[in-house]
DNA sequence: CAGTGCTGCCACGGGCTTGT
DNA sequence: ACAAGCCCGTGGCAGCACTG
């Protein structure tokens, strides 16, 4: 089966004597790429057939009618390779800054010397402009920012040879690629979505035309599911930690509440004692305070003791005239006041 | 009849080669 | 060095046969 072999009929091979790209043409191509990217005609770094068709149409109208998809693919390949080399070299290096005016990376001479000492091939970028670097960064930087996954097979092979990585354990050594789809919100776990495992995220070409039939660098379903389970596991662990923490906090709150109850009970006991003491003080004050008994008090007492006329008025007058005897009588317990009154009046000669 | 598995086709990205 | 061609591996889609 002739997989992937482009035939002259469908690729419109331009021939080796055609098309020399210049800055202006590159700019038009990159503009078209950016436009298609904005339209969403790019999935996981792969351009859809519709994107290529649109770009061919656009460039044929601006550059010339002989432009083919193959021209675009080849030029993209060249531009991407140049960009990748510069990007991988400089973007993570300290001491270098991109100068959009000179279109070069700026650095102190000693910084350049140090870099060139370690990487002699980097010397070319000291004088060579990196045209369209800003646009290329927007278009291709994400492709370069996905760890080992983003590297070419050649680069990875070299890395394995260099690092002597055991391929059986490579999965563990590989930085997990997080697909840039909304389903992977950091704070919201969603169950495995097998439909989204397809490279186009389940989308179909709305135009009904043949779309990009997928890309090489798609992760397979197993990887996505494992990634999902990894995230599910992390989410469960997070929830478990939260529950554990919640239980701990609850326990502490319970202990605090118990201590507050104990304190409150002690406060109540103290208040009750204070009330008791206050009552006693009131009693003492009442007992020690010189009480004044009025004439009406004397009259009420006589009525209470059922003292009748003709003795009532005599006893009333006698007690009202003798403050000492009056207080003496009221000092006797109520149930003995009758007897005390008879004794007191007999001594005074009022009763016979 | 719906679900599943197989097969062929097509298209992609990328490595390598060749011609200018 | 650059542009283009050739080739490969990968993966989605459609069609078909089979199965429960």
Describe, in plain words, how this protein is organized in 3D.
This protein has 352 residues and is mainly α. Among the domains are: 20-145, no CATH class; 295-348. The chain is built from 14 helices and 4 strands. It has helices at residues 8-11, 23-39, 49-62, 69-90, 109-118, 124-127, 133-144, 153-163, 170-173, 221-288, 295-304, 311-321, 323-330, 337-348; strands spanning 42-43, 46-47, 97-99, 104-106. The strands form 2 sheets. A two-stranded antiparallel ribbon has the order 1-2. A two-stranded antiparallel ribbon has the order 3-4. The longest helix is centred in the C-terminal third of the chain and has 68 residues, at 221-288. The radius of gyration is 51 Å and the shape is rod-shaped. The structure holds a DNA duplex (20 and 20 nucleotides).
Structural class: mainly alpha
Tally of helical runs: 14
Biggest sheet record: 2 strands, antiparallel
Order of helices and strands: HHEEHHEEHHHHHHHHHH
């Amino acid at each position: 089966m002739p997989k992937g072999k482009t035939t002259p009929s469908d690729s419109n091979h331009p021939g080796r004597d055609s098309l020399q790209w210049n800055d202006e043409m590159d700019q038009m191509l990159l503009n078209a790429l950016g436009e298609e990217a904005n339209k969403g005609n790019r999935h996981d770094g792969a351009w859809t057939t519709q994107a290529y068709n649109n770009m061919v149409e656009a460039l044929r109208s601006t550059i010339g009618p002989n432009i083919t998809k193959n021209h675009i693919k080849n030029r993209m390949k060249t531009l991407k390779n140049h960009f990748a080399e510069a990007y991988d070299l400089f973007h993570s290096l300290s001491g270098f800054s991109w100068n959009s005016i000179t279109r070069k990376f700026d650095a102190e001479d000693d910084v350049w010397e140090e870099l060139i000492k370690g990487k002699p091939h980097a010397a070319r970028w000291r004088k060579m402009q990196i045209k369209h670097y800003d646009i290329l960064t927007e278009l291709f930087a994400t492709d370069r920012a996905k760890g080992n996954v983003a590297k070419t097979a050649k680069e990875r092979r070299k890395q394995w040879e260099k690092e002597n990585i055991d391929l059986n354990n490579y999965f563990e050594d590989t930085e997990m690629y997080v697909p840039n789809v909304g389903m992977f919100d950091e704070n919201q776990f969603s169950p495995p979505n097998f439909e989204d495992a397809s490279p186009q995220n389940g989308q179909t070409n709305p135009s009904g035309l043949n779309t990009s039939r997928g890309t090489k660098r798609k992760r397979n379903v197993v990887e996505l599911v494992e990634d999902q389970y990894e995230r599910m596991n992390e989410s469960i662990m997070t929830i478990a930690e939260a529950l554990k923490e919640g239980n701990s906090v609850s326990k502490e709150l319970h202990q605090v509440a118990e201590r507050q109850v104990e304190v409150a009970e002690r406060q109540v006991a103290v208040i009750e004692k204070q009330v008791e003491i206050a009552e006693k003080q009131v009693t003492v004050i009442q007992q020690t305070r010189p009480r004044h008994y009025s004439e009406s008090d004397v009259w009420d007492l006589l009525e209470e003791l059922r003292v009748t006329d003709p003795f009532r008025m005599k006893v009333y007058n006698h007690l009202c005239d003798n403050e000492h005897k009056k207080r003496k009588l009221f000092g006797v317990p109520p149930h003995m006041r009758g007897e005390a009154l008879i004794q007191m009046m007999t001594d005074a000669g009022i009763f016979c």
